[in-house]
Amino acid sequence: MSAAKIKVLCVDDSALIRDLLSEIINGHDDMEVVAVAPDPIAARDLIKQHNPDVLTLDVEMPRMDGLDFLERLMRLRPMPVLMVSSLTQAGSEVTLRALELGAVDFLAKPALGIRSGMLDYAELIADKIRAAARSRPRQARRSDAPAPKALEAPLITSEKLLIIGASTGGTEAIRQVLEPLPANSPAILITQHMPGGFTRSFAERLDKLCRITVKEAQDGERVLPGHAYIAPGDRHLELARSGANYVARLNDGPPVNRHRPSVDVLFDSAAKHAGRNAIGVLLTGMGKDGARGLLTMRQAGAVTLAQDEASCVVFGMPREAIGLGGASEVVSLDEIAPRLMALVAASGRAQRV
């Protein structure tokens, strides 16, 4: 008996996008578009009628804004939602808000040649729908929720580094890790799978929420405590040495594990240049990027953490790393930030003995 197909409902005011998504999705044997809707009002009845596994949702639509609809949906009937967003500054900010509200992931509309552009990443769209169908919908943090209490600042040296990788579900997971960190936290390098144009908005949003400084990484800049550096959405980020200092390096090398930036590229560089002075963290995400690199970090003497299944939106990358033996610890998302500070504090005590 064949497995049931993933049922998808596409909500978009553009007939072209609805047709393209239907063509792409129906071209895969394991998924089908059960209905399309031009706006959220029409979508409400179709959700009740078809009980879809995944919803694709545009942002700017008539009769009801996509974000308003998403907020209500995740409160009343949480389900996996993929946002369909334009590759613009405004589009990236709205998309990040959608991820905060509980959307699993997003699809970026190409700026030009929409038909050819969408068809070019038909496999990526299918992968995102598969991951969304397996994901755990989560309630958004309330807007009036208090900011997390700052963790105690450990005694650190400029040598200690935190190296983080994530994909699907990672924007909110990274926020949850960074937000409670003290202002003098060790330097942090982050690769999150995102297209170019989105990572700057992501860094700016985190910078407003966190006690540390969060920025998009620049090639050659010194890596400093109290700062987090996020890989630009279309370039690999690596850790390097320049004399006594750590520096960030960006490169335009080919995709690794189908990604640029790639988590494996960052983790491999940390293993090479930081060894036991680094702590590796692999968060939620589909696929296997970062799994081998986390093992390489562990073999180089680093403590390595993988997010546990229960707290992942998609338990893909961490599961692969755990299976390879790359994780020295498996930790729930809530406990990762406190565990990182405990490890840094323990390292500081060991250095003083």
UniProtKB/TrEMBL annotation:
Family: Belongs to the CheB family.
Ranges for domain Response regulatory: 7-124
Its biological purpose: Involved in chemotaxis. Part of a chemotaxis signal transduction system that modulates chemotaxis in response to various stimuli. Catalyzes the demethylation of specific methylglutamate residues introduced into the chemoreceptors (methyl-accepting chemotaxis proteins or MCP) by CheR. Also mediates the irreversible deamidation of specific glutamine residues to glutamic acid.
Modification note: Phosphorylated by CheA. Phosphorylation of the N-terminal regulatory domain activates the methylesterase activity.
Keyword Hydrolase: yes
CDD domains xrefs: CheB_Rec, REC_CheB-like
SMART domains: REC
Domain notes per entry: Contains a C-terminal catalytic domain, and an N-terminal region which modulates catalytic activity.
Modification sites for 4-aspartylphosphate: 58
Record: active site: 167, 193, 289
PANTHER family, per the entry: PROTEIN-GLUTAMATE METHYLESTERASE/PROTEIN-GLUTAMINE GLUTAMINASE, PROTEIN-GLUTAMATE METHYLESTERASE_PROTEIN-GLUTAMINE GLUTAMINASE
Stored InterPro entries: CheB-like (IPR008248), CheB_C (IPR035909), CheY-like_superfamily (IPR011006), Sig_transdc_resp-reg_Me-estase (IPR000673), Sig_transdc_resp-reg_receiver (IPR001789)
UniProt catalytic activity: L-glutaminyl-[protein] + H2O = L-glutamyl-[protein] + NH4(+); [protein]-L-glutamate 5-O-methyl ester + H2O = L-glutamyl-[protein] + methanol + H(+)
Protein name from the UniProt record: Protein-glutamate methylesterase/protein-glutamine glutaminase
Alphabetized GO MF terms: phosphorelay response regulator activity; protein-glutamate methylesterase activity; protein-glutamine glutaminase activity
